[in-house]
Amino acid sequence: MYIDMHIKFYSKKSVKELLFKSISSGYSIVAIAIPYEDICNYNINEKWKVINIFVSKKFSNVIKKLENNNNECDNYFIDKINYEDELNEYLLKLNNQIDNNYILVNKNNTLSIKNICDDFILNYKHEIEEEEIKKLHNWLAPKFIATENSNNKKDIKMIGQENSYIKTSDNLNNIQNENIFFLQNNTDTYILKRLNIKYEDVKQIENYQNFLKENKFDLISIEVTNPEEINIIANKYDCDIIYFDLKNPFTSLKKTDIQNAIDKGLFFELSSPTILTTNTEYFYYSIYLNNIISVIPLNRLIISSGSIAHTEILEPLHFLRLHFNFNKFSYKHLIGCITNVPLACIQRASVRKSMNTAIFHKTVL
């Protein structure tokens, strides 16, 4: 179970693309991060509805030619990758045409979550009523149109392909729209809402403790630009995550700077180098990252994408590989930073939100 605790809110369309790419890439829990200055532009009560969509196996061969992929490939593994890539590319376009907060993903319900808090969002399933799924199915049905070509073979015409057809290999005489695809409730994907506050903005919030109690965000993060701010936050401001802005130097970070925050149960987070663009930025990122990881215990460190565009999101294990060049790390060192550690942070947020009344239990969802 992989968790991306930080995809950035820029617009509703961009967030939808980010969520789709994250879930399709293998993340089961994703947190949308809303900047404090944009808090008025985001509807905190908005719910995202994730639905599994499956294309019938007898039509799976047509997906490989959704775009301009006309090259035949006899390698099963490459063929499978091409199929999944083309299907996801098509679903991304399809999601952008749906006005409601539906996110269609090609994914099975396989997640098992343990040690989940009774009082937290993960304890209930984001299921959609059957009637609503039927309405969505009826809306999608015209997007998969059965047509007959000049050779009297049945083809499937996909949305966005007005002037081209995707050919099937079989002569199917009775293609019905409802047989081409089917929908299923997604019960193992969770979308959290996170508030990002810069340290200088925290100081301007009148009665921060009341603000903390009254807001409806699942996670609270405070962004720091130097080590001195960490100790101040630990002493004065409760939150779940202290986020490092690695555009600022952290070469002087010491264990004494973070000990108070660790004692208070806070977690630390840094984002992926995919957001960097120049060699100079990579150089300084490497220096700051090495120092941060040498000081902060890995069981308190979260590594997230910090993505603002869906093209910045990588599959979880590819994402971890980005950090191997910065130090002598392997999967066993960093895998917890995108699995167990963020889940522990979510549990910590449960306790904070419930005023220390939360109860944890063993369960399988």
From TrEMBL:
GO cellular component, one term: nucleolar ribonuclease P complex
Pfam (any one): RNase_P_p30
Main location: nucleus
InterPro entries listed in its UniProt record: Pol/histidinol_Pase-like (IPR016195), RNase_P_p30 (IPR002738)
Keyword check for Cell division: no
Family: Belongs to the eukaryotic/archaeal RNase P protein component 3 family.
Identification of the protein by name: Ribonuclease P/MRP protein subunit RPP1, putative
Organism: Plasmodium yoelii
Lineage: Eukaryota, Sar, Alveolata, Apicomplexa, Aconoidasida
